[in-house]
Specification:
Four copies of one chain form a homotetramer. Chain A has 227 residues and is mostly helical. In chain A, 75% of the residues lie in helices and 0% in strands. Chains in contact: A-B, C-D. Chain A binds a DNA duplex (21 and 21 nucleotides) through helix 1 and helix 3.
Chain lengths: 227, 227, 227, 227
DNA sequence: TATGAATGAGCATTCATTCAT
DNA sequence: CATGAATGAATGCTCATTCAT
C-alpha cells in the first residue's frame, strides 16, 4: 500500500495468478504434458505475457518449484515444549497434515517425476524440505537426550526413524494412489503406532512414556481435525 | 520350433524389443515427454508396427507398466528360515537391492509421476508390488509371533514398520536426487539401524536378538555385495 | 521407368514441386519473409512432409540455392567458333538472356540479400556461377590471342571487361528496379556498344573487326529473339 | 539554442539514434529478419517511441532508405579539373572508395534484397544514386568531348562503360561474398586496367593519355590510401 | 511526452496417428 | 505382415502493434 504503484500491484497479482495456474497445471499434467497455452488460459493471461514474466517454460517451472519449496514446510519447525510425548504427538500431526495434504503430494509427485530432467530441483527440494525439517527434529531429539529422556547414538537415524515410522506407509501409498488419501482414522493409526514403536526403541523410560501416549491417543482422536 | 512358428518367435522377439525400448524411453522422459518416434527408433521398428502391436501410446504404456510390475518383485518372496535375525537380515538386503536398483527407481518415479493420469497403474503397482510383498512379510512375521519370537497386535503395521525403518530414508532421497544413489555402506547403516530398532520394539527377547544382530553386522559388511 | 517404383517417382515429383515452390516464395519474400506454411501451401504438401524431405528451413534454403546454381549457367559454356566477332556476338546474347532472365535475377537478388546470413551460398554462387563462366570466357579469349586476333596481358581482366561492358549496366538496373526489365532493344544497345568498345581496346585489327560487328548489328537486331 | 528548443534537440537526437540503429539492424538482418524490438533495444528507446516517431516498420524502413540515399553519394559530384587523365584517376578512386565501403555495400544489398517488396525504394535509389552520379559523369565526359579530348556518340553509354570497367567486377564479387572485400591493391588493378581500356576506346589521343596514365599508376599506388 | 505492459496472430517444428503399398 | 510416406493438430516461442499511465 505504501509505495507500490497500482501497476506494480497488478504485476504482482498477475505474477501470483500465473504461478498458481502453472503450479496447478504442472502438478496435474507433468512438465512435458503441460502446455504454455494451458497455463495462459488458466491464468487468464496472454501467452506473450507469460513469456515476458518468466522467459521460458523451463524457467517458469524451476521458478515455481524453487519458490514453493519453503512455503509449505514452515509450519512445524519449532516444537514448543509441553512434555516430550505431547510434543511428539503434536509434531506428528502437524507433519502428517503437511505431508499428506493433496497439493503437497502433487508437488512431491511432480518433483519426483522430473527429478531426472531437473536434478537441481530435486536437490533443492531435498535440501530445503526433508533435510531442513530433519535438522529441526534432530535438534529437538538431541535436547531430549540431553535431558535424559531419550537414548541413541546417531541423532540423524533417530530423526529419520521417527519420520519413517509415522509417515512412510501412508505417504508411499498416497503417492501411488492419488485418489485414495488416508482418512484421519488411518493417519491416527499410523501415528499412534509409529510413536509407540519409536518410544519403545528410544525412550529411557518406555513404560511411563507409552502410558502417557496411550492416554493421549484415547482422549484426542484427531487433534487438528480438519477432515 | 516346439509349437511356436518362426513368425511367432519373431513376433514375440519384436514385442519384447518394443517393450524394452518403450520402458527405457518412458522411464527416462516420462509419459508425455516420450514420442512414439523415439520408441520406434530405439526398438528399431517402424511406427506402424508399434501401432499394430500396441494400438495406442496409452495402451503401450499401461501394457508395459502392468507387465513389469511382477518381474522385479519376485526375488524375496519366500524368506527361508535360518533363524529369525538371520532371515530378517538377508531379507532386508534383498529388499534394498531391489528397491534401490536404478531401473526400479526409474520405474517407481514413472509410476508416481503418472499416478494421476493413469490411476489404474498406480493402483496395480501398489497392489502387486508393495502390498504383495507386505503380505509375504506379514506372513513371516506372523509365523515368528506364533513361534513366540515377536510380539505385536497389528501384523500389517509391524510389516510396514520393518519396511519403513529399513528403506524409507534412502528410497525417498534416491527418488528426489537420482544421481546420488546411496552406496552400500550407507545402505548398511540404514539396515543395521532399522533392524535394531525393529527388534528393540518387537522382539520378545531383545537382548539376545540384538546381540545376534550385532555379530551379523560386524561379520558381513555387505552380504550380497555387488557394488 | 526402369527400376524406380511409383513411390519413388512420386517422391521425386513431390521433391521437385517443393523445391520449385520454395524457390518461388524465397525469391519473392526473402529468407526471413518466407514461412514454411507458405511453401507447403504453394507446393500443395503438408508441412510435416516438407520437414521430412528437407529437415529445416535453413537446409531447404541452402539445398535450393546450391542445387539451382548450375542449372541456369550451362547454356553458354562452349563458344563454338564461326569467326571471333560472330562468336562474341552470339555469346553476348546467350549471356544476356541468362543473366537478365527474371527468375535468374530473382535468384541473384536472393543470394545477394542473404549473403551475410549464408556466406557459403554467396561463395558457392560466385565460384560456380560467375567464376566458372569467367573461366570459359578466359579460355576462349586466350585462344583468340594465340591466333593473333586479340592482344592483352591479363586474360582475367579481359574477360571481366567483356562481361562488364555488356551486362553491368542493365543488370545493375534490373537488380534495383525489378519491374523495369530492359527490353531487347535496350539490351541490343548495350551489347552492340559493349562489343565495340571491347574490340577497340583489345582487337589486333580493330578496323576490320568493328566493320564486321557493324554489319552483324545491322542485320540481326535481336538474334535469339524470344521477347 | 538558435531556434531549436532543447526538446526539439532531444527529439532530433533520438530520431537520429533510431535511424542509425534501424539502419544497422536492417542492413545486418534484412527487412523481415529485423524486429522492432531489436531496433528499440539498439537505439535504447522504448518501442512506443519508435512507433510514435515512425508509425510503422514499413514506414521506418522506407524513411531510412530514402533519407540515406543522398548522403553517401555527394563526395564525387564535381570532378575539378587538373587534366583529364588525372581527373579520371581521382574520380575513379573516389567512386571506388564509396561503392566498396562495407556500409554502402550493406545498404546496396538491402536495397537489392527488398527491391521486390519496396519497388519505390529501388527506384529512388537508382534515380538518386547511380543515375545522378551518371549524369555528373556524363556532363564531365561531354565537356572533354567538346574540348576534343574524347570521342563518342552516346554519352550515357560512355559514362556507364567507365563505371563498368572500373567497378563492376569488384562490386559484384563484394555483393556475393561479403567477408572478402577487395584490398586496395586489387582495386588498383581494376582501376588501372579500366581506365586503360576506357582511354584506348574513347580518347582522341590514346598514345599520350595512356602514357600519362601509366605514369600516374606507377607513382601513386593507392592515392586516397586509408586501408 | 515517453513507457511498461499487454496481446492476436504467426513462426518453425514435432506429435500421435493412419494410409497406400 | 511390415513399412515409407503423409497429415491435422499441437507446441514453445516471437512479432508488430497498441493501450493505460
Amino acid at each position: 500500500m505504501t509505495g507500490t504503484s497500482p501497476r506494480a500491484l497488478n504485476r504482482q497479482a498477475k505474477e501470483r495468478r500465473i504461478l498458481q495456474a502453472a503450479l496447478n497445471v504442472f502438478a496435474a499434467e507433468g512438465y512435458s504434458g503441460t502446455s504454455m497455452d494451458a497455463i495462459a488460459a488458466k491464468a487468464e493471461v496472454s501467452k506473450p505475457t507469460l513469456y515476458q514474466y518468466f522467459g521460458t517454460k523451463e524457467q517458469l517451472f524451476t521458478e515455481i518449484m524453487l519458490s514453493r519449496r519453503n512455503e509449505m514446510l514452515d509450519a512445524f519447525e519449532h516444537p514448543s515444549s509441553e512434555g516430550m510425548v505431547r510434543d511428539l504427538y503434536r509434531f506428528s500431526w502437524a507433519y502428517a497434515d503437511t505431508v499428506l495434504n493433496p497439493d503437497f503430494l502433487s508437488l512431491a509427485r511432480l518433483i519426483i517425476a522430473e527429478a531426472q530432467r531437473f536434478p537441481e530441483i530435486g536437490r533443492a527440494y531435498q535440501a530445503s524440505g526433508p533435510d531442513r525439517v530433519l535438522r529441526g527434529v534432530m535438534a529437538y531429539l538431541d535436547s531430549q537426550r540431553e535431558a535424559g529422556r531419550l537414548q541413541f547414538d546417531d541423532e540423524e537415524l533417530a530423526a529419520e526413524d521417527l519420520w519413517a515410522l509415522i509417515l512412510s506407509a501412508p505417504r508411499n501409498q498416497a503417492l501411488h494412489v492419488p485418489d485414495a488419501l488416508p482418512d484421519r482414522a488411518a493417519v491416527k493409526r499410523y501415528i499412534d503406532n509409529g510413536l509407540r514403536v519409536f518410544l519403545k526403541a528410544y525412550s529411557t523410560d518406555p513404560t511411563s512414556d507409552l502410558d502417557q501416549l496411550k492416554r493421549l491417543c484415547e482422549q484426542a482422536p484427531t487433534p487438528t481435525g480438519t477432515a
